[in-house]
Amino acid sequence: MTPTSPASSPTTTLLTQVAASLGRPVPAVWADAVRAEPRDRFLPGLIWLRDGAGGYVSCDRATDPVRWAEAAYRDVPIVTRITEDADGFQEPTSSASAPGTVLRMLADAALGDGQRVLEIGTGTGFHAALLAHRLGADRVVSVEIDPLLAETARANLKAVGHAPTVITGDGAHGHAPAAPYDRIICTCSVRSVPAAWLAQTLPGARLVVPWSTSWITYGTLVLTRRPDGTAAGQFAGYGSYMVMRGQRASADLDRDLLRAGQRPSLSSTALSPGRWPATASTRSSRSGCVCPTCGTPGPPTAVRRTPASGWPTTPLRPWPRWITTAGRPPPTACGSTGRAGSGTRSRRPTGGGSVPAHRRSPATASSSPPKGNASGSARNGRAPGPAPPVTAEQPARLPPKRPSAP
């Protein structure tokens, strides 16, 4: 068999892909680590790859070695364990991160010689191998909650000549016996940073932690531990990791099936999402996007109109028009921030369904502009006026100019 030249080796190809993703060459110290720690040595024989339709397709090294090897040295995440429900729903439970994301995290960690690192989530062991190559195995502690994964990672690391400390346990608790640490790198996302991590780090330590919310799992926190035991930092725009097991939601938002043991519940409300009754005691939400200025015509895609939902506009703002778009208007249009509901909060109804002064009948409208922060006619000592009927096709009308408040 003819040896593969360094210029055409799978690792060189991988580093080229990562450099293209980063927009710059991979730092030499980490390029050397990637060359020294072959990624394929940390992958199981059976892996799962994206099928292009939102699911996964298996790839077995025994039956398709070429495709398996190509996947091992591409800058993509690889699912290493998956569960499938009776209805065919596939849920990844473990994966090997994309090398480009791994190297971004290592770069953001700004590792220095002699530092001690705590890794949360050992996974296959590849990340720990890169750390051990850079710092030495005695400076690396890795915690894995899954006993089988922890044992597999130990075997993978031993096979390439590394023996960092791999602990089987809950990463949220860190590993106090080996503390304090100069760096913490997490390979799962969190919704809150565990207090144990801050307690086990030195002042000035850096924490690189993928972030998650109820709506999106994306982005990475790069934090610096303060002397008072708190941490502050910034978000980096990369990284989408599985949520730490102890912080996962009890139900999935991406499917309409319940997990075993869960019971469905039904709730109802008398508040119509289409109309806001004048007798409602609270206003629970708003629909649409409030335009903060509206003094000039909006972008071509924007149509100003009274909200079809029937929510009254507030008389306290000089911009009582709404925007519906066939695509969000740019942030510079009409002073919009590009965020639905910008500048508004839920509040008590404005006098039982009252509307701005310029839309009231002459008998109820006031010539003087509202003052202060009172939100509604009742607060200003005036009887509320009736809300006029609103339809989806009602044309927008700009209000007459009013004198500014003294």
Per-chain topology:
Layout: H1 10-22, H2 28-36, E1 46-50, E2 56-60, H3 65-72, E3 78-84, E4 90-96, H4 99-109, E5 117-120, H5 126-135, E6 140-144, H6 147-159, E7 165-168, E8 181-186, H7 195-199, E9 201-210, E10 220-225, E11 231-236, E12 289-290, E13 302-305, E14 322-325
Q: What does it look like?
A:
Helix content is 17%, strand content 18%. The chain has helices spanning 10-22, 28-36, 65-72, 99-109, 126-135, 147-159, 195-199, and strands at residues 46-50, 56-60, 78-84, 90-96, 117-120, 140-144, 165-168, 181-186, 201-210, 220-225, 231-236, 289-290, 302-305, 322-325. The longest helix has 13 residues, at 10-22. The N and C termini lie far apart (88 Å). The strands form four sheets. The protein has a seven-stranded mixed beta sheet with strand order 7-6-5-8-9-10-11. Strands 12-14-13 form a three-stranded antiparallel beta sheet, with no helix packed on it. It is α/β, with parallel strands linked by helices.
